Amino acid sequence: MFFPISNSHINPLDLVVVGFVIGILGGFFGVGGSFIAGPALRLLGVDWNYAVGTDLAHIVGKSIVAARKHRTLGNVDLKLGMIMALGTIGGAEGGAQLIQALKRAGNVNTVVSWVAIVVYITISVFMLWESHKTLKLTRRTGSDAKAAASKADHSAFGSVTKKIQRIRIWPMVSLPTSGIKEISLWTILVVAVIGGFFSGFLGGGAGYIRMPSLVYILGIPTHLAVGTDLFEIVISASYGTFTHAIKGNVDILIALVMHTGAVIGAQIGVVATQYFAGPKIRLAFVPLPLIGAVIVIYTLVTGHKL
Amino acid sequence: MKQDAAKSLRVFAAELAIYAVLVTGYFFLVLHLLGNWLYRLETQHRILYAFACILLIAGQAVVLDAVTTVLFRLLRRRWR
Predict the structure, then answer these.
(1) What is the pTM of this model?
(2) Which residue(s) pair with A175 in the sheet?
(3) What interface predicted TM-score (ipTM) does this complex get?
(4) Which of A260, A268, A271 to mutate to test the interface with B (most CBs of B within 10 A)?
């Protein structure tokens, strides 16, 4: 099938399958999935600039569907999502500015690649350690099945999270949906700015950083972190889609085909979260940043830009 | 308990099937009716094109989801 906007010939079934896989990951883990969608679109023959912009457009639609579904399951903290969105847009702009500065210095590819590898591997190793330790603990106390049903969340990192929650820098906000009585607004904004910064610096929605940050730093239960992250991705990806579309980097017809698979996958992913406790979702999350790291290492070693 | 789970899975699968048909139909409708217009818009009026992108993708997500829910309710009433 010919897509005139990006001037590319692609089998629509391939797009649907890619969308479906990313949809499941998005619904289940609360990530945009750009670390897979971008390279996949490149492999299908889409130019890099269209791959980035089109991927963002399909993420908007998929995240709307998944966030709506999560909301019906009570997994979205709207207040937190709104605050996070403000910080994310600011942080994304900061990340993009740093990219421009590195471009001028002439070493953008090397710096971004190494930062990405370190960040992805650190997240994976930390989450593997934490979820494994938490699962061992819950098995010992026998609270695993109860936790899955009630969405109550245990974390081996919980003591550090509590200390962060106790930081009292005015103004303090309460997040009743997430079960947090009081937390400094600045703590939330710092987490959002960091997520946004990596989104602008490494590309995509940076859900692989935001979802763990919500759980470990703010102490949001995993199911709520997934749903709230998706809600936040809707806002940040819409902003990204708009700016990329103005720059001529979005093929909306490709995005719509991908979306047909993605929305089905997203609904399946959301429903699947119902059957897993928080630590299990976090353990299953571990390979995602690793896949991102492998792709970056591949591009560094071979010189090919996937 | 198991019967409830099986029933809710069947309901979910049926809802998903309706939704799949609708999103596929929506794409072909957009391709057929708006394909050329979108191409021209992308080359000549980028800001308008950017708004159209957001509207089309959000429309597919929100409107079709709502239509699926309504259709599914109607079908369930008939089945009863």
Answers:
(1) 0.84
(2) A180
(3) 0.85
(4) A260
